[in-house]
Amino acid sequence: MTRGPGRSEAWRRTNFRGRTVTLKEGPALASGVCAASALAPGVSPRVRAASIVAAAGAAGFGAYDDLAGSDRAKGLRGHLGALRRGEVTTGAVKMAGIGATGIVAAALLRRGPLDTLMDGALIAAGANLINLFDLRPGRAVKFALLTAAPALVTPAAPLVGPVLGASAALLPDELAERSMLGDAGANALGAALGVAAVAQAPRPVRAALLGGVVGLTLASEVTSFSRVIERVPALRRLDRWGRNAPEVTGGRGT
User: Fold this and answer.
1) Domain ranges within the chain, ordered by starting residue
2) Could you tell me the strand order of the sheet in which 20-22 lies?
3) What span, in angstroms and rounded, lies between the C-alpha atoms of 157 and 164?
4) Which of 155, 153, 131 is nearest to 23 (CA)?
5) Contact 122, 194 (CB under 8 A)
6) 3 DSSP β-pair partners
7) What pTM does this model have?
8) Which residues lie across from 21 on neighbouring strands?
9) Pick from 3, 158, 153: which is nearest to 66 by CA?
10) SS3 for 108?
11) How far apart are CA 96 and CA 118, in angstroms?
């Protein structure tokens, strides 16, 4: 992903195919997610507040990384390695900030200290996981839709449904390669879904979800999700569904 020079280019990027796209889908999605959380029917004020805090915080720190960051350090390993060398990357600031807002959001639910720490970790890890899939047009939103869809038949539906609806509304523009989520949008989406999970799921389910999300995050440090998707025909077809042109090699990450 190439960052445009100059303030006027701040929200423009070059995607994996070499096309110029806008990052403004990210703030648009974050705004939609916050509005959906505020207006979701049958949701308690504390859950509404937690969702807005988590999504807005994730979007804010994600936008900071989008606009001020560089590609020198990537992934947990890259950012932690930079910290060991005394370098604080924008990605490290983002991770710390999203972790902090995740804890604040979890604290709004007024559970015990252990639950607050676990829930905050799940919110932050969910924000990061969705961002890990934002490497091809529509991939992160498709992943969110597929993995969160089962929650539409659970008590979390009033919060999950509007969030997924806001994501789906922006999907056609992303598939047409006019826009991309960026960290702001992907982090906000993941954080909001994380709040929906922690607000309704019992502790064993939340612990299992956290384990799964952390496992996928660690797996991303040693393998490329894009390569795995390309090797599995069903995943490859789903990944390319709705996009304008066949896959080509190069450009925006792996």
Assistant:
1) 23-224
2) 2-3, 12-14, 20-22
3) 10
4) 131
5) yes
6) 13
7) 0.88
8) 13
9) 3
10) coil
11) 16
